[in-house]
């Protein structure tokens, strides 16, 4: 007994050394724990975020394989093809806007859809936000209800409504307003309608989030200070809903830009959109490098738009300060 | 100037119906500092919101300078409000907030800038014109709200418990500030509060409200010295109530003895409540209306002492300067006949 006690005392003699050693051990243990805890996040970002992008980036600088895939030879052809036509016989390059026009058409449709969704979504979100709190959840549930069904099924349902023998045309003919079917399917209007239908909740939800926080006593105060309804909307409600409007527009614009199913089904694939064009490169056209390049160019465009939005938001904050 | 006649408002229906205003009539004069005083839920805020135009009465009418305004929307009434929570626009700076009303009235920029500068000077905030609202203290926000409501030079300024969020010292300061602003601008102020002291110190006239009714309208002194109802007497200041019955001899018989009263009495046999303020009760003095009792409790509060005297049937409190009396010792109190109020319920 006594021996053991003296023994431990002697081993503890150099106290400061032992302490420093223990501290170092603890620090490196903490470092290991930290790395271990961060691993899932790093792995997730790496596997689902960086890796696919890196593959797309590498593939875009390779040559297409004959039956799809790529052959491992460096080439910038994919990017050249985006802007120029290569003559089959003498390899000379002529500037071509065919792909640019696809991009432009898609961007235009995405902008129109975003504006449409904002015009419909704002009154909807305002309506929900001004309901008694108990009713709001029901309305929000109704807005999100379509999400419970697959996008493909919903787009088919829209197709059934607007086709020549569809619900709208049959009804119109039955009540005698039209003699023959109005052509709605396979038009730009049908794509527009389908896109708005698909992405409206993405506009309503962030708008609702910012309108719900709006202090309606401010609306009262503005009325009290001689502001009419339009002025209250313009000077108080819209400025306060700005963050929600920006978030909603981004959430609608980006998926619209790359939309694939809706233009394919409702547009009939008559006019190529970016999404369809990219899909085509990995399918029928068997040009993976060009598909990758187009996808990266699309991403760069989105990034530029986001940067502009961010800049204007920062400017707005400065001018308010 | 503001004539309010027979306003009634019921919120909800059936079992949950709540009468917020019950046949309320009052006339507020020009340049008056008029206070609506009452406990929360008495209808004072509803009445204020009706004058502002945020609430429509079920029946009754509001006239401003002889013109009916009952159904005019708020932005068509020359009336501005200082809201309880200030309701300042967070996305505008101080000057933009103050200029908002003028801008909506379509005044030109030069005039707006001049008026904003003058109004901010009036509330002593001219050095903060460019500040954001969230950079201001509570007291400063209060002044911005005041300036914003004053800038369009309304005929009537409504104030909905504007001082309740301020700490004691700031509140005292703002009370005299509000009074000064009212005198300087000559605008009619309608002030809502549940703080009786605030009402007494600032108002030209007070309307005491309870359960949707106006119980008494009068100058602070009238309300304090001659309350018309037990509720008014109880709500404003401290007061003693003594229950009694009118005798044939023109006195009031109470459980502690007969009391003479100078105020007119109802017919003999009627049950009445006598009311007297603690500062009017005289300790120890012998004479008419003197009642014998024992000193139950002595509470010292700095500028004086409150003596709780047990009279057997009731207990009476008496406010006095110095009090060389011991707790538990016999102590008589005298209730001067001219100070006894007669209340009938």
Short descriptors:
heterodimer, A: MetI-like fold, 2 domains, two-stranded antiparallel sheet, 13 helices, 4 strands, 74% helix, globular, disordered N terminus, B: 345 residues, alpha+beta, Rossmann fold, OB fold (Dihydrolipoamide Acetyltransferase, E2P), six-stranded mixed sheet, 20 strands
Give a verbal description of the structure.
The complex is a heterodimer of chains A (321) and B (345). With 321 residues, chain A is mainly α. Chain A contains 13 helices and 4 strands. Chain A has a two-stranded antiparallel sheet with strand order 1-2. Chain A has a two-stranded antiparallel sheet with strand order 3-4. The longest helix of chain A is centred in the N-terminal third of the chain and has 45 residues, at 15-59. The model of chain A is unreliable at 1-12 (pLDDT under 50). Chain B is elongated, with a radius of gyration of 25 Å. With 345 residues, chain B is α+β, with helices and mostly antiparallel strands. The longest helix of chain B has 18 residues, at 168-185. Chain B has 2 domains: 2-234, P-loop containing nucleotide triphosphate hydrolases (Rossmann fold, 3-Layer(aba) Sandwich), CATH 3.40.50; 238-343, Beta Barrel (OB fold (Dihydrolipoamide Acetyltransferase, E2P)), CATH 2.40.50.140. Chain A: InterPro entries: MetI-like (IPR000515), MetI-like_sf (IPR035906).
Query: What would you report as the Rg of chain B, rounded to the nearest angstrom?
Result: 25 Å
Mean pLDDT of chain A: 86
Main pleated sheet of chain A? 2 strands, antiparallel
- Ranges of chain A where pLDDT stays below 50 over 5 or more residues in a row are 1-12
Instruction: Please report which band the strand proportion of chain B falls in: under 5%, 5-15%, 15-25%, 25-35%, 35-45% or over 45%.
Output: 25-35%
Largest interface: A-B, 19 and 27 residues
What is the number of domains of chain B?
A: 2
| Helix/strand order of chain A, N-terminal first | HHEEHEEHHHHHHHHHH
What is the multimeric organization of the chains shown?
heterodimer
Tell me the CATH architecture of the largest domain in chain A.
Orthogonal Bundle
* Global geometry of chain B: elongated
The total count of helices of chain A amounts to 13
The CATH topology of the largest domain in chain B turns out to be Rossmann fold
What would you give as the CATH superfamily of the largest domain in chain A?
MetI-like
Q: Mind telling me the CATH superfamily name of the largest domain in chain B?
A: P-loop containing nucleotide triphosphate hydrolases
| Helix and strand pattern of chain B | EEEHEEEHHHEHEHEEHHEEEEEEEEEE
- Strands of the widest sheet of chain B, in order across it, are 6-7-8-3-9-10
Structural class of chain B: alpha+beta
